[in-house]
Amino acid sequence: MKQLARGMAAYGSAEMAGRVIRLATTIVIARHLTPTIVGEAALALTVFELVRVLERVGTGQQIVIAEERDLPSVCHTVRQVYWVWTLLLMVLQAGIAFVLAHYFGHGVAGTMLAALCPVFLFMAGGHVSYFLAMRAGKVGALARVNAVQTISDQLLTMVLMLLFPGPWAIVLPKVLVAPIWLIASLRAHPYHAEPGVRGMPLRQILGSSGSILAADVLSALRTQGDNLIVATMLGTTMLGTYYFAFNAGLGIVSSLVGAFGSVAFPMLARSETFDARRAALGKLGIGAAAIFGPLVLIQSLAAPYYVPIIFGARWTEAASLVSVMCLGGLTLAANQLVSAWLRANGQMAKDAANSLLNCAATLGGLTCGALFGNLMMAAAGLVGGSFLATAWILARHALPLIARRTGPPPAPAISSCPTFQSAPDRKATDPAMAAFPAQDPAPARP
């Protein structure tokens, strides 16, 4: 529990510092932009999120779990593979931007999406250093990287919004702070390729990529697909209102869930026996309930009062949406913990199955609610579907652990089994205001 407290203090304080600035940015945006304009930026950032999730092929996590003797070879291979992969993603995103602008009539959103392509270059530059820092347990250093990146993004967004109000004030800072993230990551743990090092076989580095990518893509569809459904079924203006409600409702909680995942996965993965790992899971579960239960309930009940006062009268009707969205924070925390447990035990296929269930339940509930042509019904369907899926997942994985006294041995290391282990993806920061989406197993990244 002390380890959880220290880790949450490091990551959580950085997240909350960023959240204070992000809240101020959200207020400025809410008071300067209409839902229609916010919706245009939301569309571009949503597509960017869906493309960006494809970079999670488990390369960084192989650095974390590698045997010391294999580390130089693993880093060498990961660096090469990740550069090639991110360059391909840049080409893919540019192509989607062209289609969005020329075939769907969203010229502004398409141009903004194209402008976000260079972010992948900075991600590749700091990838190995970031995960070497994670391997070395530099929690404080990584927390500072996240805080510097997030705060810089929010300050730039506020300045641009005050000087040039418009959707570009939301998108451009994501590109401008990418070099800051890269420099901070390299300083956290400098990496220089050793000459003459032979690479690892690709099957060891990418052996579990299919399951990892499937789980993370499904998670991204769950957290970003809702925006596409709302835009398609209810229109861009409704998307702007929904996007605001999601940010205001889940911004604080999702940031802390990301910090929680960054602490939970290493605690579980470092446990040498199954019983020790299960004991760590119990402590993490108690800690999660103590942190997220009161926070979610207080924020949900208070939403009708603070939304019109803080964000302006034009968003008064969105207060009830914010209250409903807040409740989804409970399922985010629960699923984060279950996914960290499964991946720490090398059970990526089960994690992918859970992601599929969550994705189908939440987006299915949202779609059913949107059929009524009402945002409140859509939000209720989203949260309701998430609760149903989470209840099933907890019953499937938590109850057997409570009843079982012994279990299987811990998952083998990379030298004997090329499995990937990390915490799940999440909407770790406000999607409209986030600097760059978070990295597995949940730190922020460009």
Report what the structure shows.
- With 446 residues, this protein is mostly helical.
- It has one domain (2-403).
- It is 76% helix and 0% strand.
- It has 16 helices and no strands.
- It has helices at residues 2-32, 35-52, 59-65, 71-103, 107-115, 119-135, 139-163, 168-176, 178-188, 202-205, 209-234, 236-269, 274-311, 319-344, 348-370, 375-403.
- α1 packs parallel to α7 (139-163) and α1 packs parallel to α13.
> What's the total count of β strands?
0
Mean pLDDT: 80
What's the Cα radius of gyration? 21 Å
Characterize the overall form: globular
Distance between the termini: 31 Å
> Beta-strand level of the residues, as a percent range?
under 5%
Write a compact overview of the structure shown.
Its main location: membrane. By secondary structure, the protein is mainly alpha-helical. The chain contains 16 helices and no strands.
Topology:
Layout: H1 2-32, H2 35-52, H3 59-65, H4 71-103, H5 107-115, H6 119-135, H7 139-163, H8 168-176, H9 178-188, H10 202-205, H11 209-234, H12 236-269, H13 274-311, H14 319-344, H15 348-370, H16 375-403
Helix pairs in contact: 1-7, 1-12, 1-13, 2-4, 2-5, 2-11, 2-12, 3-4, 3-6, 4-5, 4-6, 6-9, 7-8, 7-9, 11-12, 11-15, 12-13, 12-14, 13-14, 14-15, 14-16, 15-16
Task: Name some characteristics of this structure.
globular; transmembrane helix; 446 residues; disordered C terminus; 16 helices; 0% strand; mainly alpha
